[in-house]
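Run log, item B.
One chain of 162 residues. Sequence copied directly from the ordering sheet:
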Amino acid sequence: MPERLSLSRVRQGDAHECFKWFEDWPDYAARGLQTTVDLPSKKPNQLIFVGMGGSASAGDVINDWLNTSTSVESSIFKGFLPRRDLSRSLVLACSVSGNTQETLTMTRLALERGASVTVITGGGQMEDLASERGLPLVKLPFTMPPRFTFPFLLFSCLRIVE
């Protein structure tokens, strides 16, 4: 049986002590489950996730799950948004930093094409856009690299699409 990995050995390979963020994942998931937003009354015929990198990770998981286990049409776009009418679409726009230009561009295009948009962000220009346009907003309750926010992103997105 392999030797159990000690905390001192973990610290040798994790100089920034990122492991501490993973210890808090159950709390992040619980906080994500508390997410509430007011969605438009019109029922969408498709769900679209837009984001980049770690900010898009929850969308990747939910999109795969929906496309293999339900009849809900779902897509995820990273960096571009196809030209099409989105008037019956719910777009979840996620940028942990709030300043990812590709996500900002896709969010603005989705709005121009008639989509209902909900913003999930830690702040920045995405929060400003949500405020200016009166969009539903889920604000990340902490600041850290996107990959560590995964449980909050996943469970807040699941609450929204529930």
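Observations after the first pass:
- The two ends are 42 Å apart (CA to CA).
- The CA atoms of residues 86 and 110 lie 7 Å apart.
Flagged for discussion on Thursday.
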